[in-house]
Write a structure and sequence with these properties.
This protein has 206 residues and is α/β, with parallel strands linked by helices. The protein contains six helices and five strands. The chain has one domain: Rossmann fold (3-Layer(aba) Sandwich), CATH 3.40.50.10140. A five-stranded parallel sheet has the order 2-1-3-4-5, with helices on both faces. Helix 1 packs across helix 6 and helix 2 crosses helix 3. The longest helix has 20 residues.
Length: 206
């Protein structure tokens, strides 16, 4: 029986959830799992009686690690920017700075599309080391792997070459795997996709 992920194994995942972001989404989720960690997201629960903000705060409290992609703050068709991701990053910072001893151990990877673009809309982050993925899934994969390896110091994390090869093989097989669920690849629900990744890694489908 697989070990239930604990606080030190969980990664809070804060990112856009639209079709355009899906290639990055899949790469990040896959790399978190393949490195031996468990991604957590507000998308994993659907309870009409649960206030969204309370759910996010609860999930943040359960995770030592956090991946925050703040690359989507451009003005939308309605003339307003999207600030959910920077807001959730702020909650993660608050938990680290104001929480108990466990929460103070939090560690985050902050992603953006272009290096230092956050300075145009979130100057309070000046001095924080963000990483740019350039909308490239393999770059995101590499950033996740290096960050988790450095912060956790776990010796079980695969090499970058192994991780890339496994992910590319998974991507090749994903259309067939997804077809069994009845969803297009870019519309697979979060929990279903997580189960696909878990099963692929357990069975070594590549």
């Amino acid at each position: 029986m697989a070990k239930t992920p604990g606080y030190n194994d969980r990664v809070f995942f804060n990112c856009p959830f639209d079709a355009q972001y899906m290639p990055l989404f899949r790469a990040i989720i896959f790399s978190i799992y393949r490195c031996g960690f468990s991604p957590r997201s507000a998308l994993e629960e659907d309870n009409g009686l649960d206030v969204r903000l309370d759910k996010i705060i609860r999930l943040i409290s359960l995770c030592k690690y956090g991946v925050h992609d703040i690359s989507r703050t451009e003005v939308g068709a309605n003339g307003y920017p999207r600030f959910n991701m920077p807001f959730e990053l702020g909650l993660f910072f608050g938990a680290k700075k104001l929480g108990d001893n466990q929460q103070k151990n939090k560690n985050a990877l902050i992603l953006e599309k272009k290096a230092f673009s956050y300075q145009q809309f979130l100057s309070d982050l000046n001095g924080v080391d963000t990483k740019s993925h350039n909308n490239d899934p393999l770059v995101a994969l590499k950033l996740i792997r290096e960050w988790l390896s450095t912060t956790s110091r776990r010796k079980t994390i695969p090499t970058l070459l192994i991780l890339k090869n496994d992910f590319e093989e998974f991507e090749k097989k994903l259309p067939v795997i997804a077809k069994e669920t009845g969803y297009p690849v870019d519309e697979i629900p979060f929990n279903d996709f997580c189960r696909m990744v878990e099963q692929a890694i357990d069975k070594k489908v590549w």
